[in-house]
Amino acid sequence: MSRPLRIDHPRTSFPPLKLPYWQRRLTKLAERHRVPGAVLGVARGDHSDVAAYGVLNKDTGVTTTRDSLFQIGSLTKVWTATLVMQLVDEGALDLDAPVADVLPELRLADPHVARRVTMRHLLTHTSGIDGDVFTDTGRGDDCLARFVDQLDEAAQNHPLGATFSYCNSGFVLAGRVIEQITGTSWDRALHERLCAPLGLRRTVTLPEDALRFRTAMGHDAEGDQPPRPVPTWGLPRSAGPAGLITATAEDVLAFARLHLAGGITPDGTRLLSERAAQAMTERQVELPDALSLGDSWGLGWIRFGWAGHRLIGHDGSTLGQAAFLRVLPAQDLAVTLLTNGGAAKDLYWDLFGELFAEQAGVALPEPPQPPAEPVAVDARRYLGRYERAGTRIDILQGTDGLRLRHTTTGPLAHLVPEPVVETALVPVSDSQFLVRFADSPSWTPVTFYAVPTGESYVHHGMRATPKVS
Q: Suppose 324 and one of 5, 337, 340, 439 were both cysteines; which one would form an S-S bond, judging by CB atoms 3.0 to 4.6 Å apart?
C-alpha cells in the first residue's frame, strides 16, 4: 500500500516564517552573488509567503515583484511527468510498455532502442538518447511531432538502461506521447489538465503569453563583468516539455502543494491518484555522481537525502535564468527560488541552507570541496576526448596536472558568453575529481566510469558523455 506524501502536523509545531527577515537575507545574498532579480517562495500547508528582490531586466530597470514571471526551466519536467502519470491513472498509458506502441512511426539512431524504449526510461533519463538536441522545428503546434521525426539523427549515447544521463530529448519525446494520447498540443494539455484546475493564471509556455505579464529577462556575464541581458529570451518551442514553463513563485508552490496533498487541489478536485503521486517520489535509478544534485531519481522528481531527511525537487536552467524547488513532505514544506542571472546556484546554497535549518531543522549537505591533503592519482587513462550533442570535453595533461576543457557546440554555442572554458581537475579519489570555473566559487564533481558493456564515460553536469578518442 502506498503511503501519502503529505503528513499533517499541528500548525503550532512549525516556526512561523518571518518574511521581513527573509526579505533582508534574500536582498543581501542576491547582491553578494550578483543576481539581478530573484523571488523566494515558501509554502507550508495552505499558507505561502513570497519575497522579491532586484530588477527583471537591467536594461529596462523594471522592478521584480512577487507576481513576476521567471522561466523555471527543467522544473517543467516534473509537470510533464505529472501529465504522464495522469494518463497512467486513466489506463491510457503503461510506463513499461514500449513508447512505439503509441508512436509506431518512432525512429531512433538505434532501431533496437526505438522498439524497446519505455516511458519509464524517458522519465528517469536512462534511454541513452543524446539529450541536448535543441533543434528548432518552428512555432507551430506540430513542433514536437517534427522534432521527434528527426530524433533518428540524435546519437545513442549509451545502451538502453545502462546508466543515467540527463536527457532533454527524452522529455520532448514524452511530450509527444502526451500529445498523441490526448489529441492536443503539449501546451494545451498542460493548461487544461494542470494549470486551469489549479487556478494557475500566470503559468504559461509561449513568449506571447509571457508578454502579458511582468516577465524576467535572463542575464549572463563574461569573466568578472557584471551580468547583462542575454541576446535571446528563450529556447525553441520544441523544447517545451523539457523546460519552457514560465511562472510565478506562487504558481510553482501551488504545483508543489498538489504533490504534497497526494494529488488533490485545494478545492478537493483529484488531479492525480495518491498512488501515482507517491510513485513519482520513489527511487527509480541511482546516479553515477551523488554530489552534484540528488542521490537518486524518481519519476520526474530528483530525490535528495539531507542529514537523514528525504526531500524531492528539481532545478531548472535556461538562457540566463535558474530556478530551484525543494519539497520536504514530512514537514509539509515547499521552497522555491527563481532567478535571472548571476551566481544563482551559490545564492541557492546560502539561502536554502539558512532557511531549511531555521524552518525545518534540516541541514543541507556540505558542498563538495577538494581534500585537505592532495590525492595522488594516475589518471592518464582518462586523457582524451569525450563528446555528445552540444558538448565536447577534452581531458588534457597540463604542466601542473590534469585539466578539463569544456566546449559548448551546436545551436547553443552562440548563446553562451564563453563557449570554451578550461580549468584544473582536482582529484578526490581514483575516479572522482572536482572542477571550479571562473564564474562561480562552487566546486563541481567530474566522475569517470564504465558502463556494464565496458565503454568509458565521464559524468559531468548530470550527463554521461562517451569517450570518443
A: 337
